[in-house]
Amino acid sequence: MPTTLREILETKGVSLQDTIYCRAADTISDFPMNIGDFFKLTKDGTGVSDFELLNRLYCLAEGRKKTEEYQAVCAESQRVNARLREMKGIGNNGDELITEKLSLRRSKKRLNAEKTALEERYFAQSIEEIKKECDFGLAFLEYKNAFYCSNFDEIAAVLPQVEAVDTPELREMPLFVRGIRDLSQAVKRAVPLGIVGGPCLFGAHEVIIDIHHKDGGVVQFDFSTGRKYDEHNLLTDCDMESFLSTGYKNIIRLGLKNSKRGVTYQEYLSMQYLFEFALVLGAKVVIPIPDMSYMKFFKGVTELVADEVREPALKVFEKISHDIADLYLKVIDDLQSRYPEVECQVLHSRDPGLCDLFYDKREHYIHKLFRMGQVTVNKERTDAIIDYITMLALPYYFYGTRNVLQIDSVDEADSMRKCLKIHSPEVTFHSILFPEYLSMDGVHTVYYAPLEFKDYINSGG
Q: Can you give the residue range of the structural domain that contains 105?
């Protein structure tokens, strides 16, 4: 069921007014999101730097530590600790040394307490100084241990260039970010920047698989979710992988139907955002259209099916995936006409040169990925998931940019977490992730919505 930022905070036992989000508009606090409860409430850590007020607060508190009072306590503490370390190397612990050691330990405890009290006082003074200008809370939300719930104004406070971005939709919703201050520093230094993102190939209910059996029975699955339809055309918990792995011997035909009539508004925006940010940040763009990844999944999930059944289905699905990819390519062509200053590459299965470059450049990082452990519990999905993880590094592979900004759906958070691990320290990643829009039914995101609520637009926008 949809939730909101305000409701998430309430479940964490905190009021909106006690968080950094107290200054956000109600449209942001009450924006409906279908998102899992992977949130942690925090007041410190690396996320502080991505909020201008909190970063300023901590900088003020650090600046107050330069007082003679604090420095004297630190100097005395260092002297005590140095003497205690020195005494560890002395073998003969006579009464005199024992007495000195006990005295030093008492001094260490006292000095630590004085230091903590001073730091707390400095922090409180810094809070009061900033509250003279505006009210704010210290708490903020961390998402999946890697991203921080934020909003457009917070991003712009750290990275002022984005104020020029013409994306009114992003200004009305919570955003999930990481590395924004690092991105600001990279932009100031004019280092090369790459941007990556874009839509999935298709969503729920857009491509259907009919599995025909020897007894004349037909079972229907949604390709995207992998779930079986019941007699009322509702999705069940029966999954396609399990069904095919146990019943493959009785399958005589695999029928596929493409019901995707165009590009949804959500899909269009996910591509337009890339060009808007690239224009104001002077970045280069890579958009992956993952038709090859969907084909890898289909090949994996039908591996046990007889070749005379499987091969014709693979050809039909290839045609469907190319037809859908062409919808996106048309939109990207139109966007490139509107943003001629932006350099953009598009990865898809019918560009063998870029595909070969992608597979070659990522090889080293795939070895690192496997050393981290199992990629997924679903063997059939492994090759496709490896694509999703490594596609986020495409600007590095294609342009050599060591700073990469991901502008993407929040559903891609897990892929970025893995991508970060395998490409560190060669690549510095930054992220601006947006929640999926709810469809007109008010329940499902556009991705999961029934066809009648997909909100298709003309492919040119």
A: 61-131
